[in-house]
Amino acid sequence: MFIDDYILPADDDGADRGRIFAGAAIAAVLLWLAVMLWLVRGEIGAIGPVALVQLLAALCVVPALIGIIWLLAMRTSRAEAARFGVTARAMQAESARLEQAVAATAQTIDRNRRHLADQVDTLMTMGETAHQFLGAIGEGFATEIERADAHTRSLVAAADATQTSLGVLLASLPRAHAETEAMADQLERAGLSASEHAGALDAQIGALAARGREADAVASSASTAADIVSVTASSRAPAVSLVASIR
């Protein structure tokens, strides 16, 4: 890297000189404060607030000047180069950490990319399976719809036929009613005729019963006559025999 060309080795003499300058500056500041406080030691209790503020401001002037002089003395080219080297090394370390972080991030991204690719493949497979399943369901729905349509057409045809039959039946109801009334009249006339025939038959049966009784009476008379004849014949036979024996 080009930064390495500007990095200088550590300067122990410069560091020692910086520490010496710092010690001298601190000693000068302390000496200044001690001298000023010794000079006003007898008047501190009588100093008003405004005078006290002015005294403090005056006490701070010399330390500020000493600090500025120390900073100007420390800002040499070699010191700046040393500070630049420290900064460059810090930047290199930070760059190395950043490169490591970028490499780790790249590995993580690559791993996540592969994992995402696997998930995409899985999702594609699931999508194809779902598409096939939905296609099968759609075909089943289409078949069921066709079957339901055919059944509906059959029901419509049956309803039309039933409506036609009902129309014919309703149209034939008056004629059937007239025929029923005519049949009822015929049955009524037949009943009356049957009643008349039954009365005549009863009369004939009564006449036949009377004739039967007359026949029974005649038969009884005939039987009685036959018995008489038989008895007469029986009594006549012994008499004939007796007469014959007498003769």
Structural commentary:
With 247 residues, the chain is an all-alpha fold. The chain has helices at residues 12-39, 49-74, 77-246. The chain is rod-shaped, with a radius of gyration of 78 Å. The protein starts with 11 loop residues before the first helix and ends with a helix. Residues 1-11 have low confidence and may be disordered.
What layout of secondary structure does this protein have?
Layout: H1 12-39, H2 49-74, H3 77-246
Helix pairs in contact: 1-2
- β-sheet strand percentage: under 5%
Distance between the termini: 204 Å
**Rg, alpha carbons:** 78 Å
Number of strands: 0
Whole-number mean pLDDT? 78
The major beta sheet can be summarized as:
none
How many H/I helices? 3
In the predicted model, the low-confidence regions spanning at least 5 consecutive residues are 1-11
What general outline do the C-alpha atoms trace? Answer: rod-shaped
Structural class: mainly alpha
SSE string, helices as H and strands as E: HHH
User: How helical, in percent, are the residues?
Assistant: over 70%
Question: What's this entry about, in short?
Answer:
This protein has helices spanning 12-39, 49-74, 77-246. It is an all-alpha fold and 247 residues long. It has a domain at 2-114.
